[in-house]
Amino acid sequence: MTADSWTEAAIPDLSGRTAIVTGANSGIGYEATDMLVANGAHVVMAVRNQERGEAAAEDIRGGLPGSFTVRTLDLASLDSIGSFSQEIQTEYDQLDFLFNNAGVMAIPRSETEDGFETQFGVNHLGHFALSAQLLDLLIAGDQESRIITQSSGMHERGVIDFDDLHHEQSYDRWDAYGQSKLANVLFAYELQRRLERTELESVRSVVTHPGYADTKLQQRGPEQDGSTLRLWLMKLANTLFAQSARAGAWPMLYGAIAPSIEGGEYVGPTGLLNMRGNPGVQESSDRSSDEEVAERLWEVSESETGVEFQIE
Fold it and tell me: Which residues make Cβ contacts (< 8 Å) with residue 124, sequence separation at least 6?
């Protein structure tokens, strides 16, 4: 099966493999979890709200060959990320997949518990700190493991503004979102380069995007604004133009398990305007390939989070 005809039917038996999916209680994270469990994997559903996570888990239960557990993880809190990572290190000897999927999009300006602009803090810094603290478990497995970071086609709009990373001087919700999604791509590429420089071939870093998928992500900004009109328009656009959340999860699964993926690729839908269709490898923006910016972002991210990658 070629990349441009890949579907979930190509997912192999994943028995004995362990995955963490952030934002697993809804949308793309939920669909990815369902497909992984359906093919025998054990999935840690990392969710901000335990009650909602348990409710989502109830929908998955029912004779599937894999298994799952629900764990609380708030990517807007470095303390929560640290506690979650310690819990996982205690319970598991190794990990095969880390899906950095959860995110927020185009919301009014707010700050995380640690004072980061929320979109940059959750979408990038939270996953940066999580990946660093779980790297040892990803290295420990007998088989190749992969870190899959979810970005967006909106990364093409993004610019890393080192003079105002947290948009304290001025704030545009879409500029902030674009910056956070560009940071995802820069991070994934820089992580792969660092893994390669140390000849650590057992871990691969991949970045993906879902195209335009029908999820609740698009609704959160209008909901927080209290804009009924924008909320209605978002729902209408999803109905008319978006592919399903399940198809939106295919690029993450393809990036995680396709044998042709070697690390450092950008994977997304290959159909109309890269918004829908079967997944395959694509080209990301020119800015996402700027290695100097990527190295500087890495250093800033370590400084901001107080977490360092131990890649040796």
Answer: 180, 183, 184, 187, 301
**Strand pairing class (279-282; 266-269):** antiparallel
| Cβ neighbours, 10 Å, residue 78 | 22
In CATH, what number is assigned to the domain containing residue 195? 3.40.50.720
Tokens describing residue 99: 């899906």
Residue 1 lies in a domain: no
Is 131 in contact with 190 (CB distance < 8 Å)?
Answer: no
pTM score, two decimals?
Answer: 0.92
Q: Return all residues near 154 (Cβ < 8 A) that are at least 6 apart.
A: 174, 177, 178, 181
Which strand (E) or helix (H) includes residue 99? strand 97-100
Let me know if 212 is a catalytic residue. no
Q: Is residue 308 part of a domain?
A: no
Distance CA 24, CA 47 (A): 6
Given the residues 30, 177, 254, 266, select the one marked as catalytic. Answer: 177
Interval 205-243: pLDDT, tens:
999 999 998 776 545 555 455 656 554 555 444 554 568
Q: Are 38 and 66 in contact (CB under 8 A)?
A: yes
In tens, the pLDDT along 87-117 reads 999 999 999 999 999 999 999 999 999 999 9
Instruction: Say how many domains are in the chain.
Output: 1
Own/partner pairs for 53-56, CB < 8 Å, 24+ apart? 53/24, 53/25, 55/25, 56/24, 56/25, 56/26, 56/30
Range of the domain at 224: 12-302
